[in-house]
Amino acid sequence: MALMAKEGLPVVSIPGVLTILAFAFVGVYAGITGIFVTLCIALFFRDPERSGNPEKGEILCPADGRVVAVADGPAPRGMQGNALRISVFMSVLNVHVNRVPMDGRVLEVRHIPGGFSMAQLDEASINNERTEILIEDPSGRRFLLVQVAGMIARRILCRLKEGDVIRAGERFGLIYFGSRLDLYFPPGFESLVGLGDRVRAGETVLAGEK
Fold it and tell me: CB of 148 within 8 A of CB of 124?
């Protein structure tokens, strides 16, 4: 059975209380509507167990959703040379708990203010509000994981901090109500997914060593 992310409890409690009041003071139909709204919000914060077990050189997907970009380009801040970028768009129907893609150590966590355009658009990677997480794996290679806010999403939650030792598949945060994750790979990796593929955090292998 899917669990709920702890950050969802205070959010779900508000419509839950209003639903009780609706039954008491407004009527049955208002109460039933309240139950529906409360369940929808609770489903958004669902947090199912995942059993991904990557092989050496494999990188797990950090988010549930649909692959909207697979592209090579100049490496972002903190990396060198060119980088492979894979972007995953999360709709409001997807699980929004994010998971660590590889073993390693967090070198830096940086929040960058920005806009709130549609997260599935490519320009959202550089224009939208986002949190950048620079990771170094046990071999010394650097990856950049970016949580990107969307048109509806207005809050990014990242539990990681500089110096944290992380393991592939661990939960590390979430983005509220529709959003995007970008993962930048150093040279030597190739994508194992294509545009439009449906992926699952902590289970789908996004890329592997060439």
Answer: yes
Question: For residue 134, what are its two tokens?
Answer: 């620079």
Residues 12 and 4 sit within 8 Å (Cβ to Cβ): yes
User: pLDDT by residue (tens digit) across 143-193?
Assistant: 999 999 877 656 889 999 999 999 999 999 998 776 889 999 999 999 999
Q: SS3 of 40, please?
A: helix
Which residue in 87, 125, 179, 191 is the catalytic one?
A: 179
Q: Is the Cβ–Cβ distance between 130 and 147 less than 8 Å?
A: yes
Closest CA to 48 of 18, 5, 88, 84: 5
- Delimit the domains of the chain by residue range: 3-47, 58-209
Q: Which of 179, 185, 151 is nearest to 70 (CA)?
A: 185
58-209: which CATH architecture?
Answer: Distorted Sandwich (2.70)
3-class DSSP state for residue 11? Answer: helix
> If 0-12 CB within 10 Å is exposed, 13-18 middle and 19+ buried, where does residue 72 land?
exposed
Predicted structure pTM score: 0.87
Q: Is 13 a catalytic residue?
A: no
* Nearest-angstrom CA–CA distance, 180 and 78: 20
What is the signed CA dihedral for 55, 57, 58, 61, rounded to 10 degrees? 130
What is the DSSP secondary structure assignment for residue 18, as one 8-state letter? H
Alpha carbon distance 113, 147 (integer Å): 12
